[in-house]
Specification:
- By secondary structure, the chain is mainly α.
- The chain has a single domain, classed as Cytochrome P450 (Cytochrome p450, Orthogonal Bundle).
- The chain contains 15 helices and 5 strands.
- It has a 3-stranded mixed sheet. A two-stranded antiparallel ribbon has the order 3-4.
- The longest helix has 35 residues.
- The chain starts with a strand and ends in a 22-residue tail after the last helix.
- The relative contact order is 0.15.
- It is found in: Membrane.
């Protein structure tokens, strides 16, 4: 497979704006799921799950005589899985957690094959590839079982319901009657359920863990974030509105995403022949943008590009970076779960 690796910020701008390599999602993803994503629908679940996790930390510290070692990364993964499972699968959330657990296993196995460097290696009957195939079938079966149970149950307000409605809309647009057992509809539903995990669970957990690590390394910023949180949540209750007033915390998260972006590459495929500056891009070519290289480019961010300085975002992304389009922690497309990240 031929690939084009892009690190020139000016070409990145073209990639963002060029419709011939656009891989945008259907409009119903942002319109119909708005209440779940960016309009406060998930905050209650986030507060509930986080409060439970903090209580467990306090118990561990208390039982250990005032200090305790806590595996933050694993707890963050469990926390994000808990929140997303409840949001994605509603009353079937326990089954959703089982699905996400299997997806985690699949992700670990697939990462082994990421850069093997042997053409068609994913088709070889290796032990890893056989296990990947087995897990894929098991996960698909688990998702479809939950979906079929939902088809005969009362309507719920969760991601799964929106995915089902989206599949129906796609069928209506293509003049294809919606049938649960139609392979194309099944694939759409299964793929979207998987996307929720890969787009949100791991990325959110990683960003939260890196943020906490950086706050531990830079106690002055930890003190500023703590003071802001206490001011915004005087009654001890965190709400969607109080989060919007935490400007210092926002800059800390933005800087964390700059230094440690959850995505390694932004990958696009040319749907037709295109031209990016002086580069002729043939149809079918895969285009990769290494995000970390853009995020730590001194020409874009200044001499301190590799250092932790949240204040660079005090006046927004446009003031922080010479080419704002080069700041793409969730890739240049809108991350479906960006609004719930910590």
């Amino acid at each position: 497979m031929q690939m084009l690796c892009v690190t020139d910020p000016n070409v990145v701008i073209d990639i963002v704006q060029c419709s011939s390599v656009d891989l945008g999602k259907p409009s119903y993803l942002s319109k119909d799921r708005g209440p779940l994503l960016g309009q406060g629908g998930m905050y209650g679940l986030m507060v509930e799950a986080t409060t439970s996790m903090l209580s467990s930390w306090e118990d561990r510290v208390s039982k250990s005589g005032g200090t305790a070692e806590i595996a933050i990364d694993e707890d963050m993964k469990s926390l994000s899985a808990d929140i997303i499972s409840k949001t994605a699968f509603g009353s079937s959330y326990s089954k959703g957690k089982d699905i996400f657990s299997k997806l985690r296993e699949l992700q670990k196995l697939m990462s082994k094959n990421l850069y093997v460097g042997i053409p068609f290696s994913r088709y070889m009957p290796t032990k890893t590839n056989r296990e990947i195939k087995r897990l894929e079938k098991e996960i698909d079966s688990m998702i479809l079982k939950v979906v079929k149970e939902r088809m005969g149950a009362e309507r719920e307000t969760d991601f799964l319901q929106k995915i089902l409605e989206g599949a129906r809309k796609c069928g209506e647009q293509d003049d294809v009657p919606f049938k649960m057992y139609d392979k194309s509809h099944e694939k759409l539903i299964v793929d979207n359920c998987k996307n929720i995990y890969f787009a949100g669970q791991e990325t959110t957990a990683a960003t939260a863990a890196w943020s906490l690590m950086l706050l531990a390394v830079y106690p002055d910023w930890q003190a500023r974030a703590r003071a802001e949180a206490l001011e915004a949540c005087k009654d001890g209750i965190i709400t969607a509105d109080s989060l919007r007033h935490m400007k210092v915390l926002t800059t800390i998260i933005q800087e964390t995403l700059r230094l440690y972006p959850p995505g390694v590459f932004s990958v696009r495929t040319a749907l037709q022949d295109a031209r990016l500056k002086e580069i002729q891009v043939p149809k079918g070519l895969e285009i990769q943008v290494p995000i970390a290289m853009l995020h730590q480019n001194p020409d874009l961010w200044g001499a301190d590009a590799k250092e932790f300085h949240p204040e660079r975002f005090a006046n927004g992304i446009a003031a922080a970076c010479k080419v704002p389009q080069a700041y793409i922690p969730f890739t240049e497309l809108v991350c479906v779960l960006a609004k719930i990240s910590p």
